[in-house]
UniProtKB/TrEMBL annotation:
GO terms for cellular component: cytoplasm. Residues 1-266 form the Phosphatidylinositol transfer protein N-terminal domain. This is Phosphatidylinositol transfer protein N-terminal domain-containing protein. Coiled coil: none annotated. One of its GO terms (molecular function) is phosphatidylcholine transporter activity. The lineage of its organism: Eukaryota, Metazoa, Spiralia, Lophotrochozoa, Annelida. It comes from Dimorphilus gyrociliatus. InterPro entries: PI_transfer, PI_transfer_N, START-like_dom_sf. Pfam families: IP_trans. It comes from the Eukaryota.
Length: 285
């Protein structure tokens, strides 16, 4: 099993990020759905658990929040070599997510084909006034810490430094964006977060721990590395959007978000049946 910890600094509070993240998930879901591929929302409802959802060793008691279950139709989202060897119908991934903010847990599996041979889990902790320097917010064991690889994601990277330069959009560039509502941005300088803090503006960190288990003879190493690269690409693009869409979501309430999610669910059901493939496709396609 591979273990990656992505650390993303953002110019906002965790309370703001909760709204901005959910708004952006809804928007990107629409952008990634069409032509038979994309996201199908099955369940979106509150959950409550006496045992909680955090792994042993983590602080806090995260026992309630929002549960979602989705199916990702990804035939155009993976490299061509994988499509060539994947059996028909196997390129569907089930996502189960527990959002007990500021802690979130997401598990992706392929129950229709790979079953216990594939699991990708993402656990996220969001911390205010944090610059990504905490050593073990996820409560990992010594054995897990020895395997963990830390990847820092700077959302203010120039186009040439992005994981995939073709993802660049000028209107979603933190080096250019200025929020009229909050006065934040553009994010300039090699350590923009220090400048933000010096000017009394908020900085938070999203610690996103990704565990990859993939067992398929001849493809395991290649696919695990592909997943790591793809997660870095997705996290970079997504958090650039969260910041650059700030004036669209800042001031919304959680009630507003739940209404938006219900509306988007209906749109996704229609889009997945019609139109062309959208969003992040594998390189070479």
């Amino acid at each position: 099993m591979l273990i990656y910890e992505f650390r993303v600094l953002l110019p906002m509070t965790t309370e703001e990020y909760q709204v901005g993240q959910l708004f952006s998930v809804a928007e990107t879901s629409k952008n990634e759905t069409g032509g038979g591929d994309g996201i199908e929302v099955l369940i979106n409802e509150p959950f409550k658990s006496e045992k909680g959802i955090q792994p042993p060793g983590m602080p806090g008691n995260f026992t309630e929040g929002q549960y979602t279950e989705k199916i990702y139709h990804i035939s155009k989202k993976v490299p061509r070599f994988l499509r060539m060897v994947a059996p028909k119908g196997s390129l569907e991934v089930t996502e189960k997510a527990w959002n007990a903010y500021p802690y979130c847990k997401t598990v992706l599996t392929n129950p229709g084909y790979m079953k216990e041979n594939f699991e990708l889990s993402i656990t996220s902790m969001h911390i205010d006034n944090d610059q990504g320097m905490q050593d073990n917010v996820h409560g990992l064991t010594k054995e897990e810490l020895a395997k963990r690889q830390i990847v820092y994601i700077d959302i203010s990277k120039h186009q040439q430094q992005l994981p995939n330069r073709s993802d660049y959009k000028a209107h979603e560039d933190p080096l250019k964006f200025h929020s009229d509502k909050t006065g934040r941005g553009p994010l300039v300088g090699p350590e923009w977060w220090r400048l933000m803090k010096n000017h009394g503006m908020p900085v938070m960190c999203a610690y996103k721990l990704v565990r990859v288990h993939f067992k398929w003879f001849g493809l395991q190493t290649r696919v695990e590395k592909m997943v790591q690269n793809q997660e870095e690409r997705i996290f970079t693009n997504f958090h650039r959007q969260v910041f650059c869409w700030m004036d669209k979501w800042h001031g919304l309430t959680m009630d507003d978000i739940r209404q938006l999610e219900e509306k988007v669910k209906k749109e996704l059901d229609d889009q997945i049946k019609h139109g062309s493939v959208r969003g992040t496709c594998a390189e070479g396609d």
